[in-house]
Queue: 2 jobs
Job 1
Amino acid sequence: MTEKNLNKKKNGIAVLLLSFVIYAVSIYGLIYKSGVLFGISLFFVCTTWLLWPGLKVIQPQEALVLTLFGKYVGTLKEPGFYFVNPFCSSVNPASRTRLRQSGDLNKEAAQMAVAAAATKKISLKIMTLDNNRQKINDCLGNPIEIGIAVTWKVHDTAKAVFNVDNYKEFLSLQCDSALRNIVRIYPYDIAPNVDTTGDGVADEGSLRGSSEIVAARIRDEIQQRVQEAGLEIIEARITHLAYAPEIAAVMLQRQQAAAVIDARKMIVDGAVGMVEMALEYLNAHEVITLDEERKAAMVSNLLVVLCGNHDAQPIVNSGTLY
């Protein structure tokens, strides 16, 4: 289905004024009540109003898809006052679909009823779809909760209306499917021996550390799926990322343990360096001569002091080591 733009039908004002003139002349003919003139005037009075359903007003960033007896006629996309075939009907299967997206939130029933006629128009504005959070297993099998916000707009109105049943619901479902396909490739956090790029080489990609790359891949995946629906995906962003509640506490303990181990390793490395520096300083300046046993005792004491969690409690030795 190819989109047809009906941009040369901006003659709504002329047709509206013509209808008023016809009514004025017809009323004048009815007043004089002559046989032929009365019949012609009565005919125009009864039929001229049929022109008015063909008058269409298009606001900026709006479009109206028109069909005539089941055949696609074209699309009104540019702002203006148009006149089309009065028997044309507008089509928008997603007019009453309400998703968690901009333009669909905070709509009261009364406002929807008043704007029911206008909802047949298709918005060409940039919309943001905030899909529901999903529970998905990452590449290691850990259940996580993730949510995305997709920025999109209608690019081809004919494809959006005729190629899919409901382009809003179609987009929402494809976002869910694409999100699952991409998330299952990555671990939540950096893990060894995991290939996220598909080149056969393990890398450090993760959902938490490579959010920009993951979002770009999700956006490309969604775009491929909705191309035939005439939709353009501008951007996809991760709005929520966390372990599922059933394993969140365990994973938190694991992260805390890893952090403690890393901190201890850094402390021990620093302490060993300080002990080595102290021994070299004492030997270089010949402050004191230590045999191997005293060096071992000194190293032990320094490591205990430097690696301990609490402040050292010194004990003064008034005797001898022997």
Job 2
Amino acid sequence: MSNKQFSGKSAIVTGATRGIGKAIALELAKRGANVAFNYSKSAGEADKLKTEIEGLGVKAFAAQCDVGQTDSAADFVKQAKEEFGTIDFLVNNAGITRDQLILRMKEEDWDAVIDTNLKGAWNFSKAVLRPMMKNESGGSILNISSISGVVGMLGQSNYSASKAGMIGLTKSLAKEIASRKITVNALALGLIETEMAAEMNSEYREKILEQIPLKRLGNVQEVAEIACFMLSDAAAYITGQVIQADGGLAM
């Protein structure tokens, strides 16, 4: 497979300044795609990533954007389209956690997670559809969900609900726009080695590892490569699907 398989294509990756989003953005750029990404607070990290992407010989566009704000998402997509000329891929990756048992969870923690994770995916999906529909070759949307949305996780009523919602969004949207040659799929990820995972206490980490048949956490590069496959022509006949990459944790 040519490492420039996405030459001439353009992608939007939300929440790409670190972890999974960053790995996906860089892998897309390595394969020849121009990449636009948003950030919420980390302007310094965004500048570094923009430079890194441009160093791979493609265009990069970065802007501050609250994915949970419909107008902001629409403006971001408009700017990315003006910058690149086309939008071929969208990866809805932006996500936050505010874990707590429901009896102790504050309303604002529910709202923040739903707005970022679920409404953010809806906002960006809605905004990219018109540009994608004008593409002769259509496009691809990939929603980064979680096994928390498949099986539910203790203390994550907000996060699990948001990630389950992304799966429902994926299936519904896939049916709506399949005739326009646009595929929509989701990745339901297990525990991936990121900054967020690094903050887990060792006792909890060991407990989780015991439940993973492959006995390890995933890594961001593995996720990036699966994401690129799902966006590629090789997956053109796959839509409305939820691919679980979790080491067997939720099988």
